[in-house]
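fold-stage: in
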Amino acid sequence: MTTTAPLTSYGPLQFPDRADLTLRQFARAQRLELIPGPDVAGSRWSAAVFDDALDRIDAIRQAVGAMPDLGAVRAEEHLAERFSMTVHSGTAAELARRGHLPVVGDHKGHPLYCGLALENLTDRRKVERASASGQLHMRDAAAKILGIRESDLDHLVRAGVLTHAATARSSWNKHDVVLLYRQADLDRVTRSRRIDWTAVRSTPKGRRSPLAALPTQKRQTAGR
């Protein structure tokens, strides 16, 4: 049996390789402060730090978990499979909004959600509530949920009563951006006392919407 000789210091690839940790586990262990940062010049770790980590390696592996940090789609697919339920697009962001699934980085501008938190998320009710509130809808579906015309919804957006929660690329033209509206925001708008919903919903096609009277939201000036 060949034994690898110990080193006097360990680099960012040598440390996890010799400790039998993946690079992801190694990075997460540092983020959780289970392994300290480099203590030797040149961004290396001393043998003392390595040996200390090796003595605790089983506890470190258990603490960092096995699941990598995931994007929204893969995180939602994982939850759907785990709980055998429908998990709507927008659930991961809603779980993050509620403090159950931290964002720990990004990939090509899209958030990465903590794999460890995802692995430890075992409360089905939290996922159900997040899926219901965080579900995303395109413009036509959002208008249908509110029981209004799409042009009426445009007035709500213009007035700042409703704001999109996310965007996506159009399936027809990848250069077009589609605005997506969150279910919880639609529910909030329906409770607004600023709006006479009966009047809005009873306005026939081709007639001026009562929502046209809403003042246009002023845009924030850059730097303010």
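fold-stage: in (second)
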Amino acid sequence: MIKVSAFNIKILAAVFMVMDHVCYLLMPELRILHLVGRFSFPLFAWLLVEGEKHTHNVYRYGRRLLITAIISQPIYSVVFQSLALNILFTLLLGLVMLRLIKRYSQLWQQLIIIGLCAVVAEGLGVEYRVYGIAVIFLMSLIDKLKPQVWLLYWCFFHFILVTLFISDIVQYWAIIAGFIVFQFNGKQGSRARWFYMFYPAHLIILGIINYFVQSR
């Protein structure tokens, strides 16, 4: 298998996200784009875990997420005609959860933290809600479990949670993302400070294209 850097995975996550949004806004008949787009969020969750692990200043990291989330929200709401909070808020909440779990080492404390974050995700209406928080937590366990054990949990989690709480069964395709992250070569690769602006920028571009297509 081809090994990839964190930068490569970041590019893959962005490409899969754009494919998903192109399907939703412009080409709903190309269902394959939506299926492949399911890989995106788990990869972003993994990148968040890696970012939290290696950052020298978690507050600055969180501040960048928050600022980009706030800038992106009105664009996201207009483009998707949605009142949900965009994915960056989900990642920010996940970052808070990861830091709190590190601070409180007892299992019962960690379960309470995860549960509270899941409740907050549902209450605020962030993208992916409980599923998003659970995926971020599972991605944080990759270094703590044997690959076979982690993949078993990953697959079991999707079959249970998606079946019970997510009506769109194509989310099962996200399982494949769990195999992608195991191709990580341990290297960070090129830096991508531009990446924070990529999210709102691609929404603006797709929104403009969609506007002209709809007005024809």
